[in-house]
Design a protein that fits this description.
Protein name: Peptidase S1 domain-containing protein
Organism: Homalodisca liturata
Helix content: under 10%
Strand order of the largest sheet: 5-6-7-10-9-8
CATH class: Mainly Beta
Distance between the termini: 23 Å
CATH topology: Thrombin, subunit H
Keywords: Disulfide bond
CATH superfamily: Trypsin-like serine proteases
Strand content: 25-35%
Pfam family, one: Trypsin
Domain Peptidase S1: 1-212
Shape: globular
Order of helices and strands: EEEEEHEHEEEEH
Length: 213
């Protein structure tokens, strides 16, 4: 997610399901340091406009070794641009917290769950989603439920704060495709507000233009 560009160096961990290093998983996690100048922010991203264009790419300094547990996911095909996916079952994985204690106690530091978990949901109609979000409006951060977003209704208390940037996946023709990424964790414990995801298919031209083989 684009708005996560804060420290000078990020640390990414691959092949890791449990953030507790004392729990044996059978493999050693792969740690990758990512410098700020190796993060490509989508040029249309505006930090003061919520939800939209919240996407970024990371350039790695070396090739990743493909294993049974570290594999690429399919990117959207051109026909995904025109599809709404309304009613489709989707999945996303996250370490985001699974209770609303932070929302009840805003001064408490945000935390993550130690174990990666999978959440399923259904894509909902864009107009219905926009109606639900009309109550979210401030002078500085106008609500925009645009075509660049996918809305999905998911079970609350399954994942929330801390899951921005997590992948939204769709099983299509026997393969999993990266349909989107979590764009915001706003009111994520409130069933009234669907979760919002950046629709990846609309950014494929930009993604391909930044690929280097």
């Amino acid at each position: 997610a684009a708005h996560r560009r804060r420290p000078a160096v990020f640390l990414a961990r691959l092949d890791d399901l449990n953030l507790d290093d004392t729990v044996p998983e059978g493999v050693l996690p792969i740690e990758i340091s990512i410098e700020k100048n190796n993060i490509i922010i989508y040029p249309g991203f505006q930090p003061n406009v919520v939800f939209t264009h919240n996407i970024a790419l990371i350039k790695l300094k070396f090739d990743l070794r493909i294993t049974n547990s570290v594999r690429p996911i399919c990117l959207p095909t051109p026909d995904f641009k025109e599809r709404s996916f309304t009613g489709e079952t989707v999945y996303f994985t996250s370490w985001g917290q699974t209770d609303d204690d932070n929302e009840r106690n805003p001064k408490r530091k945000r935390r993550f769950e130690p174990v990666l978990h999978e959440i399923s949901g259904q894509v909902i109609d864009q107009e219905v989603c926009s109606i639900n979000y009309r109550g979210y409006q401030t002078t500085d951060t106008p609500y925009i439920i645009s075509e660049e977003l996918i809305c999905a209704a998911v079970t609350v208390n399954k994942s929330c704060q801390g899951d921005i940037g997590s992948p939204l996946m769709l099983k299509h023709d026997g393969n999993f495709f990266l349909l989107g990424i979590v764009a915001t964790d706003y009111r994520c414990f409130d069933e009234y507000y669907p979760r919002l995801f950046t629709k990846l298919s609309l950014y494929m031209d930009w993604i391909v233009a930044n690929l280097k083989f």
